[in-house]
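Support case: user asked for a sample of complex input and structure output to validate their parser. Sending the pair below.
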Amino acid sequence: MDVAWTALALSLKVAAWATALNLLLGIGTGYLLARARFPGRNLLDALLTLPMVMPPTVLGYYLLVLLGRRGPLGIWLQEHFGINLIFTWQGAVIASTVVAFPLVFKPARAAFEAVDGQLEQAARVLGISEMAIFFRVTLPLAWRGILAGVLLGFVRALGEFGATLMVAGSIPGKTQTLSVAVYEAVQAGQDASANMLVLITSVVCIVVLLAAGRLAPGRIVHR
Amino acid sequence: MTPMQLDLDIRATLRSGKRSFTLRVQCVSNSQRIAVFGPSGAGKSMTLKAIAGLFTPDSGHIRLNGRTLFDSAAGINLAPQQRQVAYLFQDYALFPHLTVRQNVGFGLARGWFNPRARVRQEKVEHWLTAFHLQELAHQYPDELSGGQRQRVALARALVSDPAALLLDEPFAALDPALRVSMREELSQWQQRLGVPMILITHDPEDVRLLGEHVLTLRDGQIDARQTTWEEKIG
């Protein structure tokens, strides 16, 4: 049973980091795509949505090619920081972040687009700086929509399998996340272990989905 | 009570598809109560937004009380934040996530955080009392009636001692009975505070009560005569 709890702890750690990264990246990208007008905006949106439709193993392969020992980013990281991401839990974080990213930035973009621009204008005339307007008006009004996406992204990262396996492998206690452990347990014929892992995963996912449902954009916004 | 001096000379052309709209407004006024009157689509809102800095004309200048807010020839274009004007939006644009008290105090808090709901500031309380909003101070905008919302918007606009009060169709969203009383209330506030006011409207009744210097706008141009309302009807 120890294997199950270790895998759960690792999965939660990886998903938490991936979600924290996606919170920053998703809000930034969502805001940029909602407000800035530049050529190639729709192309960028499409490219960033790709992880949602591509098979995770294909994404994992791309990441391997990019971050591996002979990959351009991998060589650069190794030379300048002595960092190797392949077969590490940090590599699993990168894989989960990429896979879950569209689920965070899409709702964030929609939430920012739904904020009434006139409220920002009102704040401008009242003398509030652009940065302060973002934190005092735009972000609070878009927050519910953003948070719903962030929770979905968290569940997606928690359940990530394909890309994680490609990038981080399946080292028990080191990179073997919950979903990878399920696969290994079934392959090895350890039914009790598999049942336990599946049960834990299901409960965590249901709890997060219920929370996301409560936050879904419904009634307006205060409190 | 110093008289407002407005020196406005702006040009702008907007295109959408094959249609284009040209705004050409020129006006010098010492009046405390300027009303810009005209049908919708005449360019009234654009003119008012240009004064507030929410819309940038192609060329010309805008001076208010001797301050240059915009001058295309000199390359001056102050941000809305620096213009020290107050703007009352047609549907008030109250912040839905903030209480009445926080809305009124919004412009006084300059940092990255909104005023706290429980903190009381003398200036904010003063305006809440003046507009009979004390009882509603902890409520949110969607819990208020139209007249109450307008009072909140006015209090929020006046709390930072603006150099001028810009009003975009201030009574259009109110029912007729309320319109009459709010018009009266605004007129009294304007006189008491001596804050110069520029109002845009398509309602002749607004012009009659609140317009001293009346500009009539049609298709982006000022109608030839710039007169007071009395001269116009007399």
